[in-house]
Amino acid sequence: MRPLTLEPLTAEAFAPFGCVLDPASAECRLINGGTTERFHALAMADTEAQDGRTILSLFRGQPRAFPYQVGMMERHPLGSQAFFPLTPRAWIAVVAPDRDGRPGEPRAFLVPGTIGVQYAANVWHHPLIAVGAQSDFLVMDREGGGTNLEEADYDAPYVVADPAG
Amino acid sequence: MRPLTLEPLTAEAFAPFGCVLDPASAECRLINGGTTERFHALAMADTEAQDGRTILSLFRGQPRAFPYQVGMMERHPLGSQAFFPLTPRAWIAVVAPDRDGRPGEPRAFLVPGTIGVQYAANVWHHPLIAVGAQSDFLVMDREGGGTNLEEADYDAPYVVADPAG
């Protein structure tokens, strides 16, 4: 087993895999007569392939046990998938570059509980990793025909230590 | 001024105006090896008109003062707009049928803090009404060209009493 070190999330580090949904760095527009701040377009859906539609769902994740073994990855060839936490609790996003149709060396990001990420279409990522307690997320992704899920196992798992230390 | 009574939100009552985003009544799928519940497709975006795209934004609403006067309404002819609260605090959705291109008699719904609504494209609604304290919402709506905002004033305002009594 190989250790997988948690990295802090930055827009630059995550750029090859999608985008970071961070209100603090989004364009802010004052709307509704000045009563509302609109942190604009944290994410833009990419779901149109094969007549896909964009949907909003709620994911309720059970917390993972640590040290956590990353043994498989998945990707959605036909659409992006954005996660934004409803519970202000840090979580973990694991992504990987593609290597000849399989996930390469993974990278793990510790994501603050007020920030989301969007995996770009066809980007290898691990299923939701909630930390510490049951956690809810709003998820914007694709509904439609076609095969929009691929899974692949690693030959040997990577291990993420407990972010709580 | 005319009183506007708050109604409890039900899917049936809201159906003429859009849909209710309620995890408790959504289809629930167990995914990610049983570690995650997916409350599926709380809302489906309708943003494709005139090459629109679907985006996710964060709205930070300041609380309204009560009694609150509903003096105007708006609508988005080219796209749906979904709101889901990030802060578990009740809020108010005001909608109206169309009457010859203007908003008709409004209806006001008290929405629990764990539930969202989506205004269908071209449905008259009041801008975000946060209650009690600053409240954050995730908003799925449309980005793109064309005129996607109409506003109209009522001849005389309707008045919503403080939901806290």
Describe it for me?
2 copies of one chain form a homodimer. By secondary structure, chain A is mainly beta. Chain A has one domain: Jelly Rolls. Helix content of chain A is 2%, strand content 53%. In chain A, strands 2, 9, 12, 14 and 15 form a 5-stranded mixed β-sheet that branches. A 5-stranded antiparallel β-sheet of chain A has the order 3-13-8-16-6, with no helix packed on it. The first copy, chain A, has a 3-stranded mixed β-sheet with strand order 1-17-7, with no helix packed on it. In chain A, a hairpin with a 2-residue loop joins β10 (98-99) and β11. Chain A is globular, with a radius of gyration of 16 Å. In chain A, 44% of the residues are buried. Chains A, B: Its EC number is 4.3.2.3. Chains A, B: It catalyses: (S)-ureidoglycolate = urea + glyoxylate. Chains A, B: Keywords: Hydrolase, Lyase, Purine metabolism. Chains A, B: This is Ureidoglycolate lyase.
